[in-house]
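R.M. (postdoc): so does anyone remember the format we settled on? I'll just put the structure tokens first.
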């Protein structure tokens, strides 16, 4: 099985989250996550979303599934936009305050209900949605949700054209 990793190369159709010090896509395209070095955040109690563009594919073979990985400190969910519509995974609430890598995968293109094609992958935007969470015993209020890394992993059958590692 060959895999191909896609990292953000530009902001996509939505940029609702706050980039801290960099453009949003630059804050989350880390090969190795750097925590609070570069990140995006949500200070809203309402879900805010970011979508990202990426490079075109280099692999070949039958696509088995599309995984979206994201590393957050609080509430987060994966997003994909194959063409017209945005699809989201479940809202994941990792251990608040600790960086946690989560993944959501799609076996088929949810827009066409057909197996993924390489054209689907090249046109796909992916991203993350987040909202702040209750600070609980910290005098009320809300703590921001933060994200330091987002990437897409396309899992395929066939021989890889190149090799690489996933570092999380």
């Amino acid at each position: 099985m060959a895999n191909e990793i896609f990292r953000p190369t530009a902001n996509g159709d939505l940029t609702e989250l706050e980039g801290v010090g960099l453009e949003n896509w630059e804050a989350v395209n880390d090969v190795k996550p750097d925590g609070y070095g570069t990140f995006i955040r949500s200070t809203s109690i309402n879900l805010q979303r970011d979508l990202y563009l990426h490079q075109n594919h280099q692999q070949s073979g039958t696509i088995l599934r599309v995984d979206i990985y994201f590393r957050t400190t609080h509430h987060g969910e994966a997003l994909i936009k194959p063409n017209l519509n945005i699809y989201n995974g479940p809202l994941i609430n990792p251990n608040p305050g600790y960086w946690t890598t989560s993944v959501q995968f799609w076996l088929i293109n949810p827009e066409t209900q057909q197996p993924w094609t390489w054209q689907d992958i090249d046109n796909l935007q992916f991203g993350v949605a987040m909202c702040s969470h209750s600070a609980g015993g910290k005098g009320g209020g809300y703590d921001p949700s933060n994200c330091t890394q987002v990437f897409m992993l396309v899992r395929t059958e066939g021989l890889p054209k190149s090799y690489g590692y996933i570092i999380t």
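R.M.: ...and that's the designed sequence above, right after the tokens. Also worth knowing: Residues 2-157 form a domain with the Jelly Rolls fold (CATH 2.60.120). Confidence is low (pLDDT under 50) at residues 159-168.
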